[in-house]
């Protein structure tokens, strides 16, 4: 079994989701009363979002790399980041990392290809929706990926930062998000929506979105479980 080193804290609620998902996922797959040994390095989601909004990507790489170095020192054999937005610097980070890293974007793309999707919507932080790092791999694989309009992207980004990152689920926010998804279905004909922020599953828990979902957190967790057991 391989030891995982996980960059967490971005934010805390999704880090708990990863912790439980990985521990119980390994237990289910092995069929034994066993939990894997892995290490979590908790960073600040607010620092990450600030560096992204100010486009201080060199600082972001250094910040994340310090965390990965700590995980490596703790014996991690491979690593991952439990958030989508920091993947804006994934390529540079992976090139400089002392251990292999598993990308949430690449894992989600593989799932979209398995489902033979051709048109999908993307929700996430403003950075994730606005920048090209998430969209480009899908477009290169012939999958059209659509985002909400500018005002809707700002609304979603604000609510992620001020509500979901603080583990607050607001019914009015949920309804607005559902309206945005429905608009993308009507306008673009999306077949599925990417929950491109690892906090988004909390606001959509038990809710029918009217389209399929690509839950990046769960997809990533499944990929990490497979790697632990490989």
Question: Would you mind describing this structure in some detail?
Answer:
With 230 residues, this protein is α/β, with parallel strands linked by helices. The protein folds into two domains: 4-104 and 218-229, Rossmann fold (3-Layer(aba) Sandwich); 105-215, 3-Layer(aba) Sandwich (Rossmann fold), CATH 3.40.50.1860. It contains eleven helices and seven strands. The protein has helices at residues 12-30, 45-53, 57-73, 90-96, 104-114, 126-130, 135-140, 150-162, 171-188, 200-203, 216-229, and strands spanning 4-8, 39-42, 78-81, 119-124, 144-146, 192-196, 212-215. The strands form two sheets. The protein has a four-stranded parallel β-sheet with strand order 5-4-6-7, sandwiched between helices. Strands 2-1-3 form a three-stranded parallel β-sheet, with helices on both faces. The longest helix has 19 residues, at 12-30. The termini are close together. The mean pLDDT is 96. Belongs to the aspartate/glutamate racemases family. This is Aspartate racemase.
Number of helices: 11
Counted beta strands = 7
Q: Mean of residue pLDDT?
A: 96
Main β-sheet, spatial strand arrangement: 5-4-6-7
H and E order? EHEHHEHHEHHEHHEHEH
How many independent structural domains? 2
Distance between the termini: 7 Å
CATH architecture of the largest domain: 3-Layer(aba) Sandwich
Task: Fill in the CATH topology of the largest domain.
Answer: Rossmann fold
- Per the principal axes of the C-alpha atoms, what is the gross shape? globular
Would you identify the regions where 5 or more consecutive residues have pLDDT less than 50? Answer: none
Helix content: 40-55%
- Major beta-sheet overview: 4 strands, parallel
CATH class of the largest domain: Alpha Beta
Report the β-strand fraction as a percent range. 5-15%
Radius of gyration: 17 Å
Given helix and strand content, the structural type is alpha/beta
Protein name: Aspartate racemase
InterPro entries: Asp/Glu/hydantoin_racemase, Asp/Glu_race, Asp/Glu_racemase_AS_2, Asp_race
Family: Belongs to the aspartate/glutamate racemases family.
Keywords: Isomerase
């Amino acid at each position: 079994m391989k030891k995982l080193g996980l960059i967490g804290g971005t934010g805390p609620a999704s880090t708990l989701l990863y912790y439980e998902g990985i521990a119980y996922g390994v237990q289910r797959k092995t069929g034994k009363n066993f939990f894997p040994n892995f290490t979590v390095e908790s960073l600040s989601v607010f620092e990450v979002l600030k560096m992204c909004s100010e486009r201080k990507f060199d600082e972001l790489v250094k910040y994340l790399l310090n965390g990965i170095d700590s995980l490596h020192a703790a014996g991690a054999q491979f690593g991952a980041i439990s958030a989508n937005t920091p993947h804006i610097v994934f390529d540079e980070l992976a090139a400089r990392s002392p251990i292999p890293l598993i990308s949430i974007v690449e894992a989600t793309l593989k799932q979209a290809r398995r489902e033979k999707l051709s048109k999908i919507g993307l929700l996430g932080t403003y950075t994730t929706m606005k920048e090209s790092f998430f969209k480009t791999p899908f477009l290169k694989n012939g999958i059209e990926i659509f985002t909400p309009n500018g005002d809707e992207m700002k609304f979603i980004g604000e609510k992620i930062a001020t509500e979901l990152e603080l583990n607050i689920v607001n019914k009015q926010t949920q309804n607005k998000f559902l309206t945005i998804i429905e608009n993308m279905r009507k306008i673009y004909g999306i077949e599925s929506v990417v929950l491109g922020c690892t906090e988004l599953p909390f606001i959509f828990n038990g809710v029918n979105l009217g389209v399929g979902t690509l839950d990046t957190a769960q997809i990533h967790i499944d990929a990490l479980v497979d790697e632990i057991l490989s």
